[in-house]
Structures are given as C-alpha cells and as structure tokens.
C-alpha cells in the first residue's frame, strides 16, 4: 500500500520585496500513512501554512518532491493538480468558509455535484455525515443559524464529502472555546478513524496534539 503523502526535501522561500530570500522551508521531509493522524506544531510564522499549501497542491515548492498515493505530483500540470485536490484531499481551516446562502446539507452536497455525484446520492451522504457529528437537527439550517462549533463540524463534513484519502487542517479549532474545541476534535478523530484516511493537523493546542498518533515540530524549516 502506498503512503498517502510523502514530502521529500521540500524548500520554499519568499522575497517579500526585500533583497535576499526569506527561507521558510529548508529540506522538510514528511511521510503520512493511511489511517494516521499527525499533529503539526510550530510558532506563528514558522511555515505551517506554507507546508500545508504545498502538501495540498495549492502551492509549489522551490525544490523537493510531493508524492501522493505513489504518484509524483511535483511536475504535474494544473488540471492534474486540480483533479487530485478535488478527489483526494479535504481541507479544513480555522474559519469554516461555509457558503452563507446555503444550508448545512447544501454546503456538503455542492462539492459532490462538482465531482459528478447524483443529487440524491450527494444529499444522502450529506445527511449521513451530519448525523455522524450530531447535526441531524441542523441539516436544513444556514450557517448564521448555527453555533461556531456546529459550523466547524459542518465544515469537517464538507471536507469529507468526496471521500478524500488525505485531510489537511490548519488550526481547525483555533477560534473555538475549549469545550466546543473538544467536541469538534472528537468528531474529527472519529470520522478519520472510520474512513482510514490520513490527516495532518496544524495546531497550537498541545493538549490536542498529544491525542494524535504523533507530533511533528517545524523548526528552522525542517520537520522533527
């Protein structure tokens, strides 16, 4: 079985309008296995978001390779990268970015329709996912009618709508109170375990990181 994601020798720098380069990643290596939940811990500005964007094929490294399910994605064109993002990767951010004019179910149905899933099947999956995170009573509610924790759980379900093999999360509980954070995290962990996907979760919360399978720290552009 291929690893879900392998980053090898990833480098990335920015010029930011100043002479010289600010090197954010400096030979970062990472391997994620199916069913594994990995915490990514680092100070603000250390490059966590940059690493996640490269892992999620939203950005390209200056050097190194990104291999997904045995396929080297580094030199792939935009069409192949977009297809991989749509079919293999789920993204969760600190702020849910739900579409405000659509209900919870519709927010989960839409990415499936883009992937060619029939309306009835997409709706059934949305209802199933929302039920698993305790939101059956919010299926037809719009984001403004839900609490912050309910919105974030809906965002988790949307990220899982197309059955990705890789889940990438950037501070997914960072704007939630401790109790709601625990509820959302428990929902995330149970869904990851059930589906057997791999997850890379950036967090400042060391207590949450300790509950994952392993913790990686980003130090001086490398993962340790």
Description:
- With about 220 residues, the protein is an alpha/beta fold.
- It has one domain (about 5-95, about 160-224): 3-Layer(aba) Sandwich (Rossmann fold), CATH 3.40.50.
- It has 7 helices and 10 strands.
- Strands 6-7-8-3-9-10 form a 6-stranded mixed beta sheet.
- Strand 9 (about 215-220) and strand 10 form a beta hairpin.
- The longest helix is centred in the last third of the chain and has 18 residues, at about 180-195.
- It starts with a strand and ends with a strand.
Compact overview of the structure:
By secondary structure, the chain is an alpha/beta fold.
Just give the CATH class. Answer: Alpha Beta
**Largest β-sheet summary:** 6 strands, mixed
Assign a percent range to the helix content.
25-40%
Q: What is the CATH superfamily classification?
A: P-loop containing nucleotide triphosphate hydrolases
User: Which radius of gyration do the C-alpha atoms yield?
Assistant: 17 Å
Would you give the CATH topology?
Rossmann fold
Strand count? 10
Task: Enumerate the strands of the largest sheet in spatial order, edge to edge or round the barrel.
Answer: 6-7-8-3-9-10
- Give the overall shape, derived from the CA principal axes: globular
H-E string: EEEHEEHEHHHEHEHEE
Which residues sit in consecutive blocks of at least 5 with pLDDT less than 50?
none
Given helix and strand content, the structural type is alpha/beta
Average pLDDT figure: 87
Strand content: 25-35%
Quickly count the domains. 1
Distance between the termini: 25 Å
Which architecture does the CATH hierarchy give at level 2?
3-Layer(aba) Sandwich
């Amino acid at each position: 079985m291929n690893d879900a994601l392998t980053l090898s020798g990833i480098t990335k720098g920015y010029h930011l309008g100043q002479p010289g380069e600010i090197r954010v990643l400096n030979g970062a290596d990472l391997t994620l296995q199916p069913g594994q939940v990995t915490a990514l811990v680092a100070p603000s500005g250390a490059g966590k978001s940059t690493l996640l964007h490269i892992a999620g094929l939203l950005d390209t490294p200056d050097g190194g390779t990104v291999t997904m399910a045995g396929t080297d994605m580094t030199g792939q064109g935009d069409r192949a990268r977009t297809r991989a993002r749509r079919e293999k990767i789920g993204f969760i951010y600190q702020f849910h970015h739900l579409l405000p004019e659509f209900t919870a179910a519709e927010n989960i149905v839409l990415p499936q329709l883009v992937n060619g899933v029939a309306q009835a099947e997409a709706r059934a999956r949305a209802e199933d996912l929302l039920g698993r995170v305790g939101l059956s009573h919010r299926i037809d509610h719009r984001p403004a009618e839900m609490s912050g924790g309910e919105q974030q759980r809906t965002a988790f379900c949307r990220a899982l709508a197309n059955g990705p093999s890789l889940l990438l999360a950037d501070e997914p509980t960072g704007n939630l109170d401790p109790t709601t954070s625990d509820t959302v995290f428990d929902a995330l962990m149970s869904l990851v375990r059930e589906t057997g996907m791999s997850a890379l979760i950036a967090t400042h919360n060391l207590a949450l990181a300790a509950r994952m399978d392993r913790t990686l720290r980003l130090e001086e552009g490398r993962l340790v």
